[in-house]
Amino acid sequence: MSTIIKNGRVIDPGSGTDRIADVLIAGGRIAGVAPDLSAPGAEVFDASGLVVAPGFIDMHVHLREPGFEHAETIESGSRAAAAGGFTSICPMPNTKPVNDSATVTSYIVERARHMAVVNVFPIGAITKGSAGEELAAIGNMKAAGAVAISDDGMPVMNARVMRRAMEFARSYDLPLIQHCEDLNLSAGGDMHEGAKSVRWGLRGIPAASEDVMVARDLLLAELTGVRYHVAHISTRRAVAMVEHAHRQGMPVSCEATPHHFTLTDEDMEPYDSNFKMKPPLRSGCDRGAVVDGIVAGTVSAIATDHAPHPGSEKMQEFERCPFGVIGLETALGLALEQLLHSGKISLVRLVELFTTGPESILRLGRGHLAQGAPADVTILSTDLEWTYDVNQSFSRSRNSPFHGRTFRGGPVATMVNGEFVWKR
Amino acid sequence: MNAGLLGIEELDRAEIEAILARAKDFQPLQSQNVKKLDTLRGKMIVNLFYEASTRTRTSFEIAAKRMGADAVSITASGSSVTKGESLVDTLNTLAAMRPDAIVMRHSASGAPHFLSRHLPTPIINAGDGTHEHPTQALLDARTILDRRATLEGLRVAIIGDIAHSRVARSNVHLLSKYGAEIVLCGPVSLLPVELAQLAPGVRLTTDITDAIRDCDVIMMLRVQLERQHEASFPASEYFRFYGLRLEHLDLAKPEAIVMHPGPINRGRELSSEVADFQRSVILNQVENGIAVRMAVLEKVIG
Q1: Do residues B47 and B115 both lie within one domain?
Q2: How far is CA A393 from CA A313, A326, A353, A390, A400, in A?
């Protein structure tokens, strides 16, 4: 069974390709990329006027399985991913039980093999139970399929434990992803500390709580030589510190989420928990710095931090609601709106942020359209007008601040390992 | 549909003036033999208090009864709240009993704002977390206006735990709309710099003498130990630096008045002498609370 995607604008940042061409897929792999390919008997997808890119990678999602299947499952999350143009997703380990052992990693890999419509590459915990004390079995998890380690949401506060984790991550050649938040500085906070939090009488999460952790970790990263990655970067100073680390030649990277490069605390609806996440929506100055970091290349990946929570948990007093918003289906639309149509970056750079950017951090063997590569393909439009209706989401949860937003451009079809798994 | 009273911030000056004028009409009633009107006869008001309160709850209850309405008061302990029911479910249940308004106090900032998006019943905010306490600001304004011709140009010092004070926020919004000059004063950790952006005319100081000098009104705030999530100031030296004593009053204008939303802690935020001082209007505030809440109830459900 072969498929040919005809007449699209093929953008493959890895090979520097940007031209009108056909993409031939056979046996689940890319069989050729060239103009006017002939493929008798192949299923034809007419991509005229569309962009054909390597399948998008989201290196930061929460699939909630095992343990919180009322919020999301590997299947439902993967369907939301496909509808967002993502062909590979990396679930964080804060499931129940925490993915801190080869057993849980294998369970996720196995579940995904049967239930997921996209590739699932799990991220293992840094410490047992993500409790920040005892190191998890990092090597075993890697052998079972973990592609990175992180205690996302439960930052490792003990610098000594972090140092040891970095040493092991380096020796196993795994990137270490940190959710940068000093828990003492942020304790009890519900939103960014600023004029809005003071006005609304909500406790603040200061930008310094992120900055302090990034600073500490960069010192430890220098000491250990680990490949270190800052998750969902959100402050001006954190971006500046990562940029500084780049200038020192350190193997350091960071990701930005669509909500952080799109919204600020000023955009929040009062006490609406669909705007509550960690890190919180920051000031306009911080948002600007994140966008500038994307433009300058300091930020190497766009990741959603897709964090489903059921309505019952989000329909509460603001301070009681859990942190997090879903984001798989709106990521590309927001990136096009905020980065491409605004003239900040080129389309090639945008595709990089979803493909070769995360691939260079995680080394999944994805994110390219080279001949022989797994046929993960994202077909998108830069102009199609559509409106996001969260009630139609493939996710089991509905916690999005972007319900009702109209986008210019978005995913059109998603192919994973040679099969279309979603079409608009 | 839901035209309750959530905060002072969203009101304009005309709306505030209308409530204060109406409250003035109700003042004489408080000292009459027969204090009851029948303006709101047949109306039902639910007082839902998720936080301990003596004066505000009693004041709302009396206000409702003096307007001729029926009032039911529910406190969090001994209700379905302790059985694990969510706030939305509790409110939906109450709303199904078709009250004409729900008066609500809650320890979470924004709780009434969140509910008002999901409920048809008008909600009157009787204090939400560290956000707003609109009827307190209204009764404070009524109390000042009983002694001054206008709020315009007055210099008002608000002293104490500003960060955690819903009374301070509501008063700042109200006084600022009238062009008053507002000085907020407290220990540095309870005085976030962003407070200066709350409304026009706000200045911050950590020096109580600076705050009181030449002011017309001194509003003392209660030290809210229940909202201190950490040791944000050394409690042992609080009274020395932020407790109001008689000698401070010499710095203020000669006719300056002293206010306090209560309950007062003698010897913590003000000395016993100040509490009983002739220009202390703390009990007038309490009395005005009823007239103001009658005016608010009339506006919301009348």
Answers
A1: yes
A2: 18, 10, 24, 5, 10
* ipTM > 0.90 for the complex: yes
- Phi then psi for residue B59, to 5 deg, are -60, -45
Domain of residue A31: give its range: 2-51+378-384+407-423
Residues from A in contact with B at Cβ < 8 Å: 187-188, 193-195, 197-204, 270-272, 312, 315-320
Kindly report the length of chain A. Answer: 424
Instruction: Report how far residue B277's alpha carbon sits from residue B280's, in angstroms, rounded to the nearest whole number.
Output: 5
Is A305 in the active site? yes
Domain identity same for B128 and B230: no
| Averaged confidence pLDDT in chain A | 97
Residue B78 belongs to what domain range?
Answer: 13-133+286-301
Q: What is the pLDDT of residues A150-187, one digit of tens each?
A: 999 999 999 999 999 999 999 999 999 999 999 999 99
pLDDT at site B1 = 46
Rounded to whole angstroms, the Cα distance separating B221 from A229 reads: 46
How far apart are the C-alpha atoms of A340 and A331, rounded to whole Å? Answer: 13
Q: What are the tens digits of pLDDT across the range A84-106?
A: 999 999 999 999 999 999 999 99
Both B115 and B226 in a single domain?
no
* B153 within 8 A of B178, measured Cβ to Cβ: no
How far apart, in Å, are the Cα atoms of A114 and each of A74, A78, A326, A387? Answer: 10, 12, 23, 31
Are β-strands A17-26 and A29-34 bridged in parallel, bridged antiparallel, or unpaired? antiparallel
Judged by CB atoms closer than 8 Å, whether chains meet at A197 and B194 is answered as yes
Under the banding of pLDDT at 50, 70 and 90, the label for residue B76 is: confident
* A316 neighbourhood in chain B, CB within 8 Å: 86-88, 114
User: How many structural domains does chain A have?
Assistant: 2
pLDDT at residue number B236: 81
- Label residue B90 left, alpha or beta by phi (over 0 means left) and psi (-120 to 50 means alpha): alpha
Each residue of B99-115: pLDDT tens digit? 999 999 999 999 999 99
Selected for mutation to probe chain B from A317, A318, A320, A403 (highest B CB count within 10 Å) is A317
Considering the entire predicted model, what is its pTM? 0.95
- Which string of b and e fits B126-135 if b means at least 16 CB within 10 Å? bbbbbbbbbb
pLDDT band at B54 (very low <50, low <70, confident <90, very high): confident
* Same domain flag for A33 and A73: no
Q: Which of A182, A305, A376, A389 is catalytic?
A: A305
For residue B141, being part of any structural domain is answered with no
A34 and A62 in a single domain? The answer is: no
Q: What is the mean pLDDT of residues A191-196?
A: 98
CATH of the domain at B239: 3.40.50.1370
Indicate whether A370 belongs to any domain.
no
